[in-house]
Design brief:
Chain B: This is TatD family hydrolase. The structure holds 2 protein chains of 2 kinds. By secondary structure, chain A is an all-alpha fold. Chain A has 15 helices and no strands. In chain B, helix 5 runs parallel beside helix 6. Classes of the chains: A mainly alpha, B alpha/beta. The interface between A and B is medium-sized, with 31 and 29 residues.
Chain lengths: 241, 326
């Protein structure tokens, strides 16, 4: 079901929650994990900010390291309490019955508002049956809401682990197109490929023809799969940076 | 909600209207507690922001034609708390909404039953400041049934109620809406009765409800009439809105009415209450309105570095007077 030690992770997230919310809210939260009661589980997820507030959480460097050990590349720095509360709640869900588990969480995606979607996409690397969420992740990349895209693109190990090559290329292109910080994408060079290089250079030509610029990361990515000199010529032809 | 009607009959080209001078209300802040932005363009958002609208409430309503399936409702509610909220934030306007099953579509009972089942998934969401707009349209038995069920839902969730009052048989429909709300144990102070006019306002205020007025050409209140109402009734528990939608309506109705009130000697305090403060006081009973989140500053959980589209920041402005589009 899980690719990592879920019990260790739940324990650690519980401790971090403990440091950031009041004892009675934590007590409430710990009781909300019964995902077999779909309505109650959904309500708990939705009303999280009313319980936890929305302040940015504090997390120690030791906790960050521990998290990264339990679930490589998983990072919660800068998250708000409601975001972490929601992700924590999802880890408490009962995952034994695969189809019920997928259904309960998929309905949250279908009715999610922006902050809920941010939490849901942030939770992808922690969900059970990781291969089952690849289509959902690809769907998220079609979003036009900046924060939702950033939840998928920034410091999220899920996309590079599970997306198909086409979906991955779409993620990178969308990040460039929407002027995201490319450097925060995990697995950028590990998943780099010739097809992506071709798409990137086509994009550079299109931008050049319109008198617009491209980010420098584009050249770095394309370079790996491009014969020497081609990029310099392209830059010269289109007067690009 | 609006209804169609012949425009020609109302148009008097020989009368030269006074121009709306936006500088008259410079520095004032407005809250439009009823406006259907889904039906409006980005130009409207920019004009509203320029005129001082810092926050608004978009009530769930019908879309001009009936929906035929549950998923259309689900997607509509999702869009109010999702895409529309984001779109609004790009113009520096804080977007809230009320969620409910409108009266017209309550008459499709098979569908209404299904909608009732998904409402709990939406009313607890952040920024949902009430159950609305609900109430009567034709005043049928089905409308009454779902009005009552949603009053119970609002009570359970601790949310204010935004009540739509009917175009036809308005006075009686308004009275019934209030009677039923009281019967269901709602505090009148948590109920905003919308689309009032000269005939309904007194009873609404006397019974302790909030009286909202929709400044909407031809079919609802004109703003000169509104000035007279404030002169007569003052500003306690009175608020105005545009209810701008896909009909001939004006998303600047609130700032324009403020300008007219100012011109005609209504005090600054009264103007502030009916165009800003009262709506906040009424709907903040949801616990979902935080004034510090208004204006162009983005809420604490939203980053915005830089100024470009899709960053949670604001839309770049374009010079519309230029023939060049780049």
């Amino acid at each position: 079901m899980y690719t990592y030690d879920i019990d260790a992770l739940k324990q650690l997230l519980g401790l971090i929650m403990h440091d950031n919310i009041s004892p009675d809210v934590l007590a409430w939260l710990m009781k909300q994990g019964n995902s077999n009661n779909t309505a109650a589980f959904h309500a708990a997820f939705v009303m999280m900010p009313r319980k936890t507030g929305r302040l940015t959480i504090s997390v120690t460097p030791v906790q960050i390291t521990q998290l990264n050990t339990i679930r490589p590349n998983f990072n919660i720095e800068g998250w708000t309490a409601d975001r972490l509360g929601r992700v924590f709640l999802l880890t408490l869900a009962d995952a034994i019955d695969r189809s019920h588990y997928l259904k309960v969480i998929e309905s949250l995606f279908r009715a999610g508002e922006m902050n809920e979607l941010v939490a849901l996409y942030s939770a992808l690397p922690l969900l059970a049956y990781p291969e089952s969420w690849a289509m959902r992740c690809a769907e998220g990349i079609r979003s036009n809401i900046g924060n939702v895209l950033e939840a998928i693109m920034y410091r999220n190990p899920y996309p590079s682990e599970q997306l198909s090559a086409d979906a991955w290329n779409q993620l990178v292109m969308k990040a460039i197109f929407t002027e995201k910080e490319i450097g925060l994408i995990i697995g950028l060079y590990e998943r780099n490929n010739a097809e992506l290089a071709r798409i990137l250079l086509d994009h550079a030509r299109e931008r050049g023809a319109a008198g617009r610029t491209v980010p420098t990361e584009l050249w770095k990515l394309a370079q790996q799969f491009t014969e020497a000199g081609l990029i310099d010529k392209l830059k010269q032809d289109y007067q690009l940076n | 909600m609006c209804c169609s009607r012949s425009v020609e009959n109302e148009y008097h080209p020989e009368v030269v209207p006074e121009l709306f001078d936006i500088s008259a209300i410079k520095g004032m802040k407005f809250f439009d507690p009823h406006v259907h932005m889904t039906s409006r363009t980005t130009d409207d958002y920019q004009a509203m922001a320029d005129a001082g609208v810092v926050a608004l409430i978009e009530p769930a309503f019908w879309l001009g034609q009936p929906r035929t399936g549950l998923d259309s409702f689900r997607d509509y509610y999702s869009s109010l708390i999702g895409w529309e909220r984001f779109r609004s934030s790009q113009f520096g306007i804080k977007h809230y909404c009320t969620i409910g099953l409108n009266s017209r579509e309550a008459n499709n009972e098979a569908l209404a039953e299904q909608v009732m089942e998904i409402l709990p998934l939406f009313i607890y969401k952040e920024g949902v400041v009430g159950v609305g707009e609900i109430g009567f349209d034709d005043q049928t038995a089905a409308e009454e049934k779902y009005y009552r069920l949603q009053l119970d839902l609002a009570k359970e969730a601790g949310l204010p109620v935004q009540v739509h009052t009917p175009h036809r048989d308005k006075k009686r429909g308004t009275q019934r809406s209030m009677d039923i709300a009281v019967e269901h144990g709602l505090n009148p102070y948590s109920v905003i009765v919308d689309h009032n006019n000269e005939e309904t306002v007194k009873e609404v205020l006397d019974r302790g409800f909030w009286a909202a007025f929709t400044i909407y050409p031809f079919t609802k209140m004109g703003n000169q009439r509104m000035v007279e109402i404030v002169k007569q009734y003052g500003s306690e528990r009175i608020m105005i809105n545009s209810a701008a939608d896909w009909g001939i309506s004006d998303p600047l109705a609130v700032p324009k009415t403020a300008a007219l009130m100012q011109q005609q000697g209504i005090s600054t305090g009264d103007i502030e209450r009916v165009t800003y403060r009262n709506a906040i006081t009424a709907f903040a009973q949801s616990g979902q309105i935080d004034e510090t989140e208004f204006s162009s500053t983005i809420d604490q959980s939203t980053k915005f570095a830089g100024n470009s589209i899709l960053r949670g920041g604001q839309q770049p402005r374009i010079d519309k007077s230029s023939i060049i589009i780049s």
